[in-house]
Sequence to fold (140 residues):
Amino acid sequence: MAEGYNGAFTGPQIDEAIGQVRGKNLPADGVKFSDGQSLQAKLDNQELGGGAEYCVKTFSAADWVQGSGERTITIPAATHGMAGAVLQHQFFSQRNGSYVTDSWAAKESYATLEASGDIVLHCAATTSYDGRAVLTALKG
Fold:
């Protein structure tokens, strides 16, 4: 324990302890929980709540399937491997060999998470495009 410990930490003692670690870049294996496990071990064992997983899906115009007023691409749960319940997405269309977000196609595309765990990419237009989707599943 800290020198002068009398059963309760005083404000100055707490300030001193915080000052000793403030601004230091502590490695994850150097931060310990009360059970003795390091932060890195808990991260590796997926014992901490929250976090996110991501998947990048590159597709071509030929991958889109025409539906009623839109085109879709289905990514099976077994393929994307993400378990989070909240889905975020960012679409890019390919233009002159680069991926861009400022095209009509990227702006009119979105993703949904089905009850089966499959992810469906949607393009609101009836035209297909080459591109990429970055999908992030947030864990609860």
